[in-house]
What does this fold into?
Amino acid sequence: MQASGIVLAGGQSRRMGRDKRLVEVDGRPMLAAAIDLLGLVSDDVIAACGRSQPSTAPAGPGVRIAFDAVGEGPLAGIEAGLAAARHEVALVVPVDMPYLTAPTVRRLLDALADAPDFDGAVFGLAGRGLPLPVAYRRSVLPALRARLARGEFRLRDWHATLRLTMVEGSLGGEGGEGRQGEDLFVNVNRATDLLGAAGRGEVSTRDGA
It folds into this structure.
């Protein structure tokens, strides 16, 4: 299944206190790592950014930038990315999950290919659906735009309106990473999260500036 790849890179990093896209984990800024990850599964990589962030927008071969028009959380970035996507399926990853692997995210695309009547695919751990990463069909775009126009910005509430197939099971060790399922989905949102991430790999406290 051909798919566009969208990295959500428009957050304000308020909890981190600095631009978390530039925080290095295992020697790579998280934004660069997310772009590299999507490049392994897609020939159409898009970075969804806020309009206030052009000076730190990513650049690189094959990476396009989509600025969201609403600026209200991840749904605005998803709308911008889906609008720019060249394929009818799009894989969305957040910038702050540095341990996702290509074999892991491909499972979402495989699941969606096997579920033609579904709107998207998400992961589930212990029966609990994770909001991100996620694969969508672009056919959800009109309904998403209507939701944003109504001022409804919660990602989980949006997912509750969709038919999503859930990928269950242990994900530990995929791609030779040797990590357990929940470790693959660790979020680096705050400076204190860097301490937890340091137990899984090298983390630099430099912000890349």
Remarks:
- The chain has a mean pLDDT of 81.
- The beta strands are 4-8, 24-25, 28-29, 45-49, 63-67, 89-94, 120-125, 128-137, 164-167, 203-204.
- The two ends are 38 Å apart (CA to CA).
